[in-house]
Structures are given as structure tokens and as C-alpha cells.
Design goal:
It is built from six helices and no strands. By secondary structure, it is mainly α. The longest helix has 23 residues. The protein starts with a helix and ends with a helix.
């Protein structure tokens, strides 16, 4: 039979382990180890990165609309739709090739900042598409 002291120490140890898992965003990994399938939720870092990516892509789309570059508009609109955003309809002035090159660099950098491997792959793919779109501008 366990003493109260053993039960208290075990409970405190479990609480510390759980707090550590939550603090390091490792709860999903621990659940996978024991065979459970956690419901995927976006991490706050990726959520804020997604918002920044959408805002940047909207700006590039506005420049593409201003330049009347239909293939680039189609590509950027498709990317924004896949990110869950509604593409802008407003046009802006600017150098489209420069905007595309900068956006491609930004998406490559963003892919290194992403926590989720799947989100990193999406951002890297977007970077490649934007690099190729320079030839369409």
C-alpha cells in the first residue's frame, strides 16, 4: 500500500511533466508516443505567420492587378484561396517583378520560420511558384 507521501510526490511529478509538455508544445508528440491521435491545432506562431503571409500576398496581388498580368493574378489568387483568404480586387502601382522576387524571398524565409512541417512545405512551394511567376510578369 502506498503512503500519502508517495502519492503526493507522484502527483506533483505528473503535474510538472504535463506543465512541461504544454510549455514546450510537445503534448501532441507525447500523445503519439502512447498511440493516441491528437486533433491538430495550429500553433500560435504559425497562425500569426499565416496572417503575415496573407497580407504580403494580398499586396503582391494588388500590384499584379495594377499591372494587368492575368496569369500572375490567377496564380496569386489561387494561392490566397488555398490559404483560406479572399483575394483582393483592388489594384496598386509598383514593379511586379520586384514584388514577386521579394515575395519569393519572404516565403522562403517564412518556410524556415514555420513550426509545422506541412506549413513549411506550403510556404516553400509558394516561394517556388512566385519565383517561376517572375517569367510571367
Amino acid at each position: 500500500m502506498s503512503s500519502r507521501r508517495v502519492v503526493l510526490v507522484a502527483s506533483a511529478g505528473s503535474a510538472v511533466v504535463l506543465a512541461g509538455l504544454f510549455a514546450t508544445n510537445s503534448v501532441d508528440d507525447a500523445l503519439r508516443v502512447v498511440g493516441a491521435k491528437p486533433k491538430p491545432l495550429p500553433r500560435s506562431e504559425d497562425t500569426s505567420l499565416l496572417a503575415a503571409v496573407i497580407a504580403d500576398q494580398q499586396q503582391v496581388l494588388a500590384v499584379a492587378l495594377g499591372a494587368a498580368a492575368a496569369p500572375v493574378v490567377e496564380l496569386l489568387s489561387a494561392q490566397l484561396n488555398q490559404l483560406g483568404a479572399k483575394p483582393t480586387k483592388s489594384a496598386a502601382n509598383g514593379d511586379l517583378k520586384t514584388s514577386l522576387r521579394q515575395a519569393a524571398k519572404n516565403r522562403a524565409t517564412d518556410s524556415l520560420s514555420a513550426i509545422s512541417p506541412q506549413f513549411a512545405q506550403v510556404l516553400a512551394s509558394m516561394s517556388a511558384g512566385l519565383t517561376q511567376a517572375v517569367t510571367l510578369a
